[in-house]
Amino acid sequence: MAEAQNIPVGSTTAGSIAVAAESTVATRMSAPPSFDVADFPVPHGREEEWRFTPLERLRGLHDGTAAATDGGLKVAVEAPEGVTVETVGRDDARLGRTGAPVDRVAAQAYSAFTQASVVTVPKETVLTEPIRIAVHGEGGTAYGHQVIELGAFAEALVVIDHTGDAVLAANVEYVLGDGAKLTVVSVQDWDDTSVHVAQHNALVGRDASFKSVVVTFGGDVVRLHPRVTYAGTGGEAELFGLYLTDAGQHQEHRLLVDHNVPHCKSNVVYKGALQGDDAHAVWIGDVLIEAKAEGTDTYEMNRNLVLTDGARVDSVPNLEIETGEIVGAGHASATGRFDDEQLFYLMARGIPEKDARRLVVRGFFAELVQQIGVPDIEERLIAKIEEELEAAVA
């Protein structure tokens, strides 16, 4: 597997291809969390949480000018027997339990949606087939809300597949009962003209396990904000991410793991590859260990491969620790080009340079693809990686 070249935190590579920075304080928002969009000022790009985002390309999602259109987005849910799928109104008590929106777009989405989808897996139900949620854009603007809830000791795998052309702002909630196990695979395979901004909140119950796999390929602008909090001791969270950023695309992943109860674990691994002029990837990894969260064990890592000139990475790992009584805490960020030694090793064994470069990048992503656990999705993603790399190394 290829290892990205280590770049000291806070440095810039030649030609400003990549940037890595660090703060010891978790990212602070310009306004406290709220369900009311009026509590958030219209961002101007100078705010900490917006300084990397091209606001002019959000198509009005950030300033209230983006009006929802009829029929612009279709959502279909395929669920195994025993799973309940409901469409509910805004007053349903199950909405908003995982936390309030933390920025204006998420608040706009919460204020603007008319109906929400609630998928419930009853307690002690162990699913052998995945729940599949297909979100397909048909050229319109939409605001969405999705809740996925697992009862105590239930186990499920959920695949959320985003395709088509859309301008979408959404909130997604994952509620895990005590001892539950949930794996979520969120695939962003949008058309190149799409804009997708979403906040994902996970509330992890006592001794529950949550695994998130975020895969981002398409879209003009994709900005995702996964967040994890714990409802009881013994909870575990794994957040994995894979992104391929092409010329002109902006892909931004902003994560927060809030260790707010004792004796919980988290592990974050995101990897990206970039190619083409003005390809821009942003990764913000925030981990907060509160004073009461003794016995915490956490680690986060972001690695990036820059395949061509003209691409830019901003990688910002943040770790705030308020108690010394922890098992472990750490973070890492690395960004670089191909490892010439890896290429030389493969080419010395008769592998053409083009194929060698593809093998290096495919190996770079292999461990994350294997985390998905759904053969047809894994095969599709491998094929997509091959397609993207064909253009990258041609």
From TrEMBL:
Q: Which InterPro entries match?
A: Fe-S_cluster_assembly_SufBD, SUF_FeS_clus_asmbl_SufBD_core, SUF_FeS_clus_asmbl_SufBD_sf, SUF_FeS_clus_asmbl_SufD
In its UniProt record, which GO terms are filed under biological process? Answer: iron-sulfur cluster assembly
Q: Which family would the database say this protein is a member of?
A: Belongs to the iron-sulfur cluster assembly SufBD family.
- Annotated ranges, domain SUF system FeS cluster assembly SufBD core: 137-364
Which NCBIfam families does the record match to this protein?
Answer: sufD
Origin organism is: Streptomyces gancidicus BKS 13-15
Q: What's the name of the protein?
A: SUF system FeS cluster assembly SufBD core domain-containing protein
